[in-house]
Design a protein that fits this description.
With 290 residues, this protein is mainly α. The chain has ten helices and two strands, in the order ααββαααααααα. It has one domain. Helix content is 72%, strand content 1%. Strands 1-2 form a two-stranded antiparallel ribbon. Strand 1 and strand 2 form a beta hairpin. It is globular.
């Protein structure tokens, strides 16, 4: 498995798509911080609901809030980029006609898919850290510009909280990654995985909102949707209230699951999607699928 993972890592590292996705993630962090910084010096109040001042917004961009907000950006936009990466990792094997050769060389289909999933999740984890690093650098620039740069906030409790936030972010990304990967396996193409993943990310919240307006029993169904439980989990990250949350509001419906059960449900979705991909790929006649 070590050699197989190394081979998959080499293939994904050499693909232009991987670097494009990473570049987009970095660009989004820079863009959002640039917009918020510009806004903080141009407006007197920010946020109609809470009436925060421009100074409140600017201070929220300083270093203590960089990690949780960087993770918030990844939890929103990163899910889409991670699905593109996951679908492309297996869908490209069908597009290039190398799926049978890859499965044969890996001495087992399950090993091939497992190695691909390990590498995709690994790249996603590293990409998340990259986004956080960019947020830290930009926050440091802003704080230094205003003479507020300081590391006094770094305590044991702070580090533990940020590690927990990182774990929650990876948890909410996992079912989207596994879903796009599974659909790419079933549909035998990158387009199937990416298209279905984007549909899930954008259409599911709309459908959930309509269901909540429909009364019983429809209004309770969205409590088990990926988007709802992703929001429940991400709300546990300590993002400064003045900063706009990406991919969800600042509250959830009263009937939603608790954070623990929301996380458990997301983990269950992940396992189910991965199992589906493994079962379909194992039973498929690869020779006739090219």
């Amino acid at each position: 498995m070590t050699q197989l993972i190394a081979a998959e890592f080499f293939k994904l590292r050499k693909r232009m798509m991987t670097w494009v996705v990473a570049g987009i993630m970095v660009g989004l962090v820079v863009l959002l911080y640039s917009v918020l910084w510009s806004t903080s010096v141009r407006v007197q109040t920010f946020g109609e609901r809470h009436g925060f001042t421009g100074l409140d917004l600017r201070r929220a961009l300083f270093l203590p809030g960089a990690i949780p907000y960087g993770l918030q950006i990844v939890g929103g936009f990163g899910a889409i980029l991670a699905m593109i990466l996951a679908a492309g990792s297996i869908g490209s094997e069908y597009a290039w006609g190398t799926v049978r050769l890859a499965a044969t060389a890996s001495s087992g289909r399950m090993r091939l898919l497992t190695a691909k999933l390990v590498v995709v999740f690994g790249f996603t984890a590293v990409g998340t850290l990259l986004a956080v690093a960019v947020a830290l650098i930009y926050s440091y620039i802003i704080a230094t510009y205003y003479g507020e740069a300081s590391a006094s906030f770094v305590t044991g409790t702070f580090v533990r909280d940020q590690l927990a936030s990182y774990g929650r972010t990876m948890l909410v990304l996992s079912p989207y990654i596994s879903f796009a990967f599974a659909v790419a396996v079933i549909g035998r193409s990158t387009l199937a995985g990416v298209g279905s993943g984007l549909g899930l990310a954008f259409i599911e919240p709309v459908v959930g909102g309509l269901m909540r307006l429909g009364g019983s029993p429809w209004k309770d169904i969205p409590d088990y949707f990926l988007s709802t439980n992703r929001q429940v989990v991400m709300l546990q990250n300590a993002v400064p209230a003045v900063l706009p949350r990406i991919g969800g509001g600042d509250s959830v419906d009263a009937g939603a699951l608790s954070p623990f059960y929301a996380g458990l449900l997301l983990a269950t979705y992940t396992v189910v999607f991965i199992a589906l991909a493994l079962i379909v790929f194992r039973r498929r006649d690869i020779g006739s699928s090219q």
